[in-house]
Write a structure and sequence with these properties.
single chain; mainly alpha; 55% helix
Length: 163
């Protein structure tokens, strides 16, 4: 606070608030210069991200312009390349084997980050499809979601999202 007073907020209250903060942020963006002040939007258009230009069945156009890659993703890629290059350059006192192992760990970590981003995109799309299906149900319909494999048979079905 401006008076330098500290207020401790319990974690359960802190966990309730984020959705309200997001709503208030978007409302603030609408009220404050709606033409020029845009929210810090998502870094992907999911339609563009899931397009396959070589297959017409998996290609859908958008009503806005796309570069080959979004700015945040290209910054992430260049950051990874810079990390690897600086690791190779600044670890001259290490053995080549150790440098190779370190670079391998870094590249594996980068791969996990890309997998996580893909998982988030998939999750958003699947949740959108689920919400759309629920919105289109009539009064005589039900929707059954079967995700028992993830909850009960984890030991038998230990596959990554990529598999």
């Amino acid at each position: 606070m401006s008076s330098c007073e500290t207020i401790n907020i319990p974690n359960h209250i802190r966990n309730i608030i984020p959705s309200r903060i997001i709503i208030q942020y978007y409302q603030f963006c609408k009220e404050t210069c709606p033409d020029t002040f845009k929210p810090l939007g998502k870094n992907h258009c999911s339609t563009f991200s899931l397009n396959d230009p070589s297959d017409k069945d998996w290609h859908q156009s958008c009503d806005h312009h796309h570069d080959d890659q979004c700015e945040q993703c290209s910054l992430l890629d260049s950051s990874f390349q810079l990390l690897v290059a600086s690791t190779k350059h600044r670890t001259s006192n290490c053995s080549p084997d150790r440098i190779e192992r370190l670079v391998h760990r870094m590249e594996y970590s980068f791969e996990l980050i890309y997998d996580w981003k893909s998982h988030v995109l998939r999750t958003i799309r699947q949740d959108g499809a689920r919400s759309e299906a629920l919105d289109n149900l009539d009064s005589n319909s039900i929707m059954i979601c079967k995700d028992w494999v993830m909850k009960f048979l984890v030991k038998e079905h230990c596959e990554t999202q990529r598999q």
